[in-house]
């Protein structure tokens, strides 16, 4: 499988986010306190972009704008209704000065 380039490593500082597509899959890549995470940019309640909502860079939490479900970025777990299923997580790596991710399903 091919990795998708997200951006240069220095373009994703702590607290910042990027969205890239791997085929039909939108991937939200985040820098939480210096660690990189990649999740599907889709709330597990309904098909809504999590990148539209705030990223709580203090708690590592994503908030869905549509009905206010929250997710723990590290585990992917839903923290409150109306979402119950965890986020789909993807691999992310830094190589050759850039950030990469892919849909590995
Ligand atoms: S679509 Fe995200 S909480 Fe409903």
Walk me through the topology.
Blueprint: E1 4-8, E2 17-22, E3 25-32, E4 35-40, E5 55-56, E6 61-63, E7 70-72, E8 89-90, E9 92-95, E10 98-101
Antiparallel strand pairs: 1-10, 2-3, 3-4, 4-8, 5-6, 6-7, 9-10
The protein binds FE2/S2 (inorganic) cluster.
FE2/S2 (inorganic) cluster (FES) binds next to loops.
Short description:
This protein has no helices and 10 strands.
Structure notes:
The chain is built from no helices and ten strands. 0% of the residues lie in helices and 41% in strands. Strands 2-3-4-8 form a four-stranded antiparallel beta sheet, with no helix packed on it. A three-stranded antiparallel beta sheet has the order 1-10-9, with no helix packed on it. The radius of gyration is 13 Å and the shape is globular. It has a single domain, classed as Rieske [2Fe-2S] iron-sulphur domain (Rieske Iron-sulfur Protein, 3-layer Sandwich). Bound molecules: FE2/S2 (inorganic) cluster.
- How many runs of DSSP E, i.e. beta strands? 10
Averaged pLDDT, please? Answer: 96
Here the CATH topology equals: Rieske Iron-sulfur Protein
**How would you sum up the global shape?**
globular
Query: What's the CATH H-level homologous superfamily?
Result: Rieske [2Fe-2S] iron-sulphur domain
The biggest sheet, with number of strands, parallel, antiparallel or mixed sense and barrel status, is: 4 strands, antiparallel
Note the quaternary state here: single chain
User: What's the arrangement of strands in the largest beta sheet?
Assistant: 2-3-4-8
Which segments are poorly predicted (pLDDT under 50) over 5 or more consecutive residues?
none
Helix content: under 10%
**CATH C-level category:** Mainly Beta
Number of DSSP helices? 0
């Amino acid at each position: 499988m091919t990795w998708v380039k997200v951006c240069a490593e220095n373009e994703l500082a702590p607290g910042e986010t990027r969205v890239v597509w791997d085929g039909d899959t939108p991937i939200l890549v985040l820098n939480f306190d210096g660690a990189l995470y990649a999740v599907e940019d889709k709330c597990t309640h309904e098909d809504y972009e999590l990148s539209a909502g705030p990223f709580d860079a203090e708690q590592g939490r994503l908030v869905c704008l549509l009905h206010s479900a929250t997710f723990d970025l590290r585990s992917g777990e839903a923290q409150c209704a109306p979402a119950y299923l965890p986020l789909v997580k993807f691999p992310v790596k830094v190589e050759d000065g850039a950030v990469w991710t892919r849909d590995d399903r």
